[in-house]
């Protein structure tokens, strides 16, 4: 009876594991072949057990079912070749299936076995002399598969391809375990006076085979295995306590026995879980002190870039191998890597809604312990990334508040200064009305310069709101350059380019400032170029009915003047920084403020052959 339950459990377990493998076949090389092999094992178990379940009337059917064993061995050989990525030609696989198919056909015709009664096994299949065909074929195919596994285990691929050595070792060990379990049938066939106890361990064979592979490719399998082992050990502990109670108590009490089981399981719960944790994740123990130290170190960073660098150092030191950690708010997936970094494990934290989620690259060969450590580290890193992001937002809000406060103060001061300056300027202008022409011209130029500075100062300091409109940017810029001598368009402009979120007046102000800045640096004037995202998706005419997936556009105002001095580049867009003698120093600051108000930015870029190029990046 015990063997019937054992083999029935093995049958149900094998079919269930085959379904699990089919669900995760894309994560395991040869996953579908392994599922087919498990189904073949289930067929073989059914062939052995049919007479014990349904009586002698199904023995002929059972023998025909058992005769399919060589085909199962061929599937096993095929799986080993695919799983280990063995450098064998396809002809070897075809030959394996050919041998298995011929052996199955011969066995179906000859039926090289019969059933006999056995005291422990029940109805037992005993081979006839003709069984040599079936036996030699599946033994040869099985040894071929094990040979492929041993070759992969002893000589791993140089280029790093193929399964982890731990996976190959697990499959090889499961094969040896299965051979030991089948020794129970050998005990029965040789009629030794020993119970065929190895058969009782047969349900562990498919578990070892599948878990040994999935623990590297499907990380959640380790969590399931850990929970199952904890419950199994606690259940075994409870049964042991119940068995020991009569030896401890002089009387029988179900209530005390139940209380002892509950207390024992409660006391053993923590130690058992820690033991299973060390068993499932060797080298993957993470203490509360480790988590606290990680949090403390990562919280000291003030930017996502520094957070990624610090996380790389922490995780690499903990795992004893170089790990790349990338924390980028705009990361859409795992970055492309080449050269010596291609095989380095990488952890990329990506923004996903309101939280940060990890993406893993090149972790397939990592032991479960290291992967477990990395998983826990990723949870701490996600919290740290969220904290850094929130701190950056708070700092940005504080900077905006301070800027607005300074602008308000500057605006009040500018308004007072402008009022106090304009009256003297008018008096100066009237005072030189009767002066010589040369004097009037010089004084007029200086008065105009002071008036322009005053106007720029007022415009920069006062608060203003954007009046966004939908405009055809090509027509808008065409009209602008007709009023600005020396400015011209590049050949990249389409006949029409519609934008939805632009304030035309402020954009004109920014472009005029850039054009005048370029005209002052180069007598040849400037060229206005344009770029936009997803440029290839749009046709030559981006009109109102054409809405490509582009989100941002870039306007480049380029000249071939003397360029921007190196010492000026860092503060070029700050107030009162100018590359032109006599400039107000507010033009580029106003340009930068207009770009930021639109949700974009202004920058100095390199676009050969131009010596200087200012870029306005704006949303569409």
**Which regions have little confidence, pLDDT < 50, spanning 5+ residues?**
332-342, 534-550
Estimate the helix proportion, in percent. Answer: 55-70%
* Radius of gyration from the alpha-carbon trace, in angstroms: 40 Å
Strand order of the largest sheet: 7-9-10-12-11
The proportion of strand residues reads 5-15%
Kindly provide the name of the CATH class of the largest domain: Mainly Alpha
Distance N terminus to C terminus? 76 Å
Shape category: elongated
Count structural domains: 5
By CATH, the topology of the largest domain is: Rhopdopsin 7-helix transmembrane proteins
The number of distinct β-strands equals 12
Structural class, please? alpha+beta
**Major beta-sheet overview:** 5 strands, mixed
Which architecture of the largest domain per CATH?
A: Up-down Bundle
Mean pLDDT over the residues: 79
Number of helices: 18
User: What pattern of helices and strands is seen along the backbone?
Assistant: HHHHHEEHHHHHHHEEEHHEHEEHEEHHEE
């Amino acid at each position: 009876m015990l063997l019937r339950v054992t083999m029935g459990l093995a049958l149900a377990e094998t079919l269930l594991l085959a379904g699990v493998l089919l669900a995760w076949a894309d994560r395991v090389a040869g996953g579908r072949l392994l599922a087919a092999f498990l189904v073949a094992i289930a067929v073989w178990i059914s062939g052995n057990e049919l007479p014990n379940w349904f009586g002698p009337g199904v023995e002929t059917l059972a023998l025909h079912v058992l005769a399919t064993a060589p085909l199962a061995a061929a599937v096993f050989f095929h799986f080993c070749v695919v799983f280990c990525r063995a450098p064998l030609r396809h002809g070897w696989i075809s030959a394996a299936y050919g041998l298995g198919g011929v052996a199955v056909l011969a066995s179906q015709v000859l039926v090289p076995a019969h059933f006999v009664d056995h005291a422990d096994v029940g109805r037992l299949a005993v081979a006839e002399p003709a069984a040599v065909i079936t036996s030699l074929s599946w033994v040869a195919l099985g040894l071929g598969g094990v040979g492929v596994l041993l070759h992969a285990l002893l000589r791993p691929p140089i280029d790093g391809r193929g399964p982890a050595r731990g996976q190959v070792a697990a499959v090889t060990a499961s094969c040896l375990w299965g051979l030991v379990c089948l020794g129970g049938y050998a005990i029965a066939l040789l009629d030794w006076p020993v119970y065929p106890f190895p058969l009782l361990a047969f349900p562990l064979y498919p578990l070892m085979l599948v878990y040994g592979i999935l623990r590297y490719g499907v990380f959640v399998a380790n969590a399931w295995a850990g929970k199952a082992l904890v419950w199994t050990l606690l259940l075994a502990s409870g049964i042991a306590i119940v068995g020991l109670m009569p030896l401890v108590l002089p009387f029988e009490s179900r209530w005390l026995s139940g209380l002892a089981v509950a207390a024992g399981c409660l006391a053993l719960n923590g130690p058992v879980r820690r033991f299973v944790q060390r068993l499932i994740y060797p080298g993957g123990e993470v203490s509360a002190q480790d988590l606290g130290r990680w949090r403390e170190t990562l919280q000291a960073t003030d930017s996502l870039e520094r957070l990624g660098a610090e996380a790389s150092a922490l995780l690499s030191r903990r795992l004893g191998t170089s790990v790349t950690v990338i924390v980028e708010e705009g990361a859409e997936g795992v970055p492309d890597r080449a050269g010596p970094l291609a095989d380095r494990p990488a952890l990329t934290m990506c923004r996903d809604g309101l939280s940060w989620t990890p993406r893993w690259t090149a972790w397939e060969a990592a032991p479960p312990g290291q992967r477990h450590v990395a998983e826990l580290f990723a949870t701490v890193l996600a919290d740290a990334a969220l904290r850094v992001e929130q701190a950056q937002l708070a700092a940005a809000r504080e900077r905006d508040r301070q800027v607005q406060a300074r602008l308000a103060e500057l605006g009040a001061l500018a308004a007072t200064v402008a009022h106090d300056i304009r009256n003297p300027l008018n008096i100066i202008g009237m005072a030189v009305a009767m002066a010589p022409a040369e004097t009037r011209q010089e004084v007029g130029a200086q008065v105009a310069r002071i008036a322009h500075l005053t106007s720029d100062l007022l415009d920069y300091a006062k608060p203003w709101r954007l009046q966004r409109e939908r405009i055809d940017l090509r027509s808008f810029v065409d009209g602008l350059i007709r009023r600005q001598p020396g400015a011209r368009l590049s050949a990249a402009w389409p006949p029409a380019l519609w934008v939805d979120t632009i304030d035309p007046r402020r954009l004109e102000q920014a472009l005029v400032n850039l054009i005048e800045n370029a005209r002052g640096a180069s007598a040849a004037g400037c060229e206005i170029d344009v770029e936009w995202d997803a440029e290839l998706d749009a046709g030559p005419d981006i009109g109102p009915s054409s809405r490509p997936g582009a989100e941002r556009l870039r306007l480049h105002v380029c000249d071939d003047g003397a360029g921007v001095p190196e010492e000026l580049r860092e503060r070029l867009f700050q107030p009162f920084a100018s590359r032109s003698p006599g400039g107000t120093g507010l033009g580029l600051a106003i340009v930068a403020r207009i770009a930021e108000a639109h949700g974009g930015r202004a920058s100095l870029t390199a676009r050969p052959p131009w010596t200087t190029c200012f870029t306005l990046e704006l949303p569409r």
